[in-house]
Specification:
alpha+beta; two-stranded parallel sheet; 3 helices; 2 strands; disordered N terminus
């Protein structure tokens, strides 16, 4: 078997998620005729993690977890949502 004949396994995680495109496709359905795609607002949540001294996880692990979570792409970016029509609700969670 050559390298050109092998392909990496498909993964839903790597598949781009363009939510506005999904909505455009759904709007073609007869029951969705009233959706005005130019005026749709999107709501996403964002969690801010805060390091605490509460027992359960070592401080270095908490800091590593928070750093990894901080570097993750935002939900709005992942879903390709338009910034001007996206509302982000935020909450702080102690770790």
């Amino acid at each position: 078997m050559t390298a050109s004949s092998t392909s990496p396994p498909s993964s839903a995680f790597r598949t781009p998620t363009d939510f506005p495109e999904v909505l455009r496709r759904a709007a073609a359905h007869p029951l969705a005729q009233t959706i005005d795609l130019d005026h749709v607002s999107y709501l996403v949540s964002r969690i801010t993690l805060r390091c605490t001294r509460q027992p359960g996880m070592a401080i270095w692990r908490k800091r590593l977890f928070i750093a990894l979570a901080h570097n993750a792409a935002s939900h709005a970016e992942f879903l390709h949502l338009p910034e001007e029509r996206t509302i982000v609700l935020s909450a702080e969670v102690p770790v």
